[in-house]
């Protein structure tokens, strides 16, 4: 039975980069027999303009029915003055919540061809290929009680609560283990077990789940050391699994190791394996509509979709190989341009990837 992909271009460069990713999916369907159909729906500011809400019910319904979702980006200056309840970003948060997307997968991958784009020495980062698995629906960002209260002496006190149930830790560590089985078979669980009881329990659960995966080498690291190791020697990591807040910070740090925001894909999965796939960057209003945005993060998000939701790893390999061939040929969008390379626009880059796919 063919798999259904819901395409949500969103706002700004989302429209342009998703168009290129759709070309790639269409090529895999027409030339290599990938059994998919694609539907499109509105989300974000464009959805607000058309319907008065950034997340129309029809989009939620289609998302729930889909096998996987491809999202461009949401947001833009023209919607910044709207009430927070209808801002474009609400569309994205609403989708995460409606679909129960608890596992956020963020690879940090640096193609050797782009090693110069990093602010770190090329030998430290060239060939970096790690995956950060961040818990996305629990922890301190959602824990109750939370708020700002007034103490007896009139001083204000802000407070948040770090909470995790064993079942929440169990399922995210399991995701990390399963991913490690398809990669280098090493998982580093990041916590602050020396100070925070909640993460002491996190570590206990990680060890318990880890014992079910004898082939995977499980290690533990305190978050302060992990942040240091990420910049000192990032290639020591294969899969890193951590809490919502630690993952938020560490995954941005890891992304910047690669120096090229236009290259990094991401996935958010729920318990059914359904996933939403999107580049890590935003809608880039400063370059929207100019045909200069880099579509590769979105195209690589399609590869993740094929690997993690559609069980088509060979198709994912095809896309990743096409990206390598195209970079080897010297084609670069403006954000990753360097001396001696050929600068191309969004569409030209998308066409080059499709060309490389056809030549396989
Ligand atoms: P951004 O990621 O959109 O842009 C940051 C910088 O990176 C800009 O200079 C931009 O031109 C550049 N850039 C981003 N993607 C690029 C690409 N594919 N190719 C080339 N250059 C690229 O972040 P921002 O400027 O902080 O936010 C802009 C809007 O995007 C805001 O409304 C924000 O809320 C929204 N946003 C959305 C998401 C999302 O949809 N997941 C994520 C982050 C930000």
UniProtKB/TrEMBL annotation:
The residues that the entry says bind substrate are: 96, 106, 134, 224
What SUPFAM superfamilies does the annotation carry? Isocitrate/Isopropylmalate dehydrogenase-like
**InterPro entries recorded:** IsoCit/isopropylmalate_DH_CS, IsoPropMal-DH-like_dom, Isopropylmalate_DH
Principal location class: cytoplasm
- Extract one GO molecular function annotation from the record: 3-isopropylmalate dehydrogenase activity
Q: Which gene encodes it?
A: leuB
Kindly state the subunit structure of this protein. Answer: Homodimer.
Please give the catalytic activity noted in the UniProt record.
(2R,3S)-3-isopropylmalate + NAD(+) = 4-methyl-2-oxopentanoate + CO2 + NADH
Family affiliation:
Belongs to the isocitrate and isopropylmalate dehydrogenases family. LeuB type 1 subfamily.
> Taxonomic lineage of this organism?
Bacteria, Pseudomonadati, Pseudomonadota, Gammaproteobacteria, sulfur-oxidizing symbionts
Identification of the protein by name: 3-isopropylmalate dehydrogenase
**Residues at which Mg(2+) binds:** 224, 248, 252
Q: Name one GO cellular component term.
A: cytosol
EC number of the protein: 1.1.1.85
The cofactor remark states: Binds 1 Mg(2+) or Mn(2+) ion per subunit.
User: Pathway, per UniProt?
Assistant: Amino-acid biosynthesis; L-leucine biosynthesis; L-leucine from 3-methyl-2-oxobutanoate: step 3/4
Q: Which domain of life is it from?
A: Bacteria
Q: Which SMART domains does this UniProt record tie to the protein? A: Iso_dh
């Amino acid at each position: 039975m063919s798999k259904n992909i819901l395409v949500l271009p969103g706002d700004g460069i989302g429209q342009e980069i998703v168009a290129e990713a759709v070309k790639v999916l269409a090529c895999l369907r027409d030339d290599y027999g990938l059994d998919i159909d694609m539907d499109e729906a509105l989300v974000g500011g464009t959805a607000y303009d058309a319907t008065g809400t950034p997340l129309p019910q029809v989009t939620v319904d289609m998302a729930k029915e889909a096998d996987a979702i491809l999202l461009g980006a949401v947001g833009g200056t023209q919607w910044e003055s709207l009430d927070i309840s209808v801002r474009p970003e609400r569309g994205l948060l609403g989708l995460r919540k409606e679909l129960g997307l608890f596992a956020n997968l963020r690879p940090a991958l640096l193609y050797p061809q782009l090693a110069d784009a990093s602010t770190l020495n090329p030998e430290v980062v060239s060939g970096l290929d790690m995956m950060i698995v961040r818990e996305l629906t629990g922890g301190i960002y959602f824990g109750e009680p939370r708020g700002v209260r007034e103490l007896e002496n009139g001083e204000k006190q802000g407070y948040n609560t770090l909470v995790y149930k064993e079942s929440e830790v169990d399922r995210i560590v399991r995701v990390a283990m399963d991913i490690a089985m398809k990669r280098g078979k090493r998982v580093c669980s990041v916590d602050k077990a020396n100070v925070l009881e909640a993460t002491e329990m996190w570590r206990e659960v990680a060890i318990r789940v880890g014992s079910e995966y004898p082939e995977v080498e499980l290690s533990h690291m305190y978050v302060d050391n992990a942040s240091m190791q990420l910049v000192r020697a990032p290639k020591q990591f294969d899969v890193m699994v951590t809490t919502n807040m630690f993952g938020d910070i560490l995954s941005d740090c890891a992304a910047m190791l690669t120096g090229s925001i236009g290259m990094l894909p991401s996935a958010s999965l729920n318990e059914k394996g359904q996933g939403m796939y999107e580049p890590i960057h935003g809608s880039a209003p400063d370059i929207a509509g100019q045909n200069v945005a880099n579509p590769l993060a979105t195209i690589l998000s399609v590869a993740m979709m094929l690997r993690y939701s559609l069980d088509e790893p060979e198709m994912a390999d095809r896309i990743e190989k096409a990206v390598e061939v195209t970079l080897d040929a010297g084609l670069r969008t403006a954000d990753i341009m360097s001396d001696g390379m050929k600068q191309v626009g969004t569409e030209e880059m998308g066409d080059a990837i499709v060309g490389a796919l056809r030549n396989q």
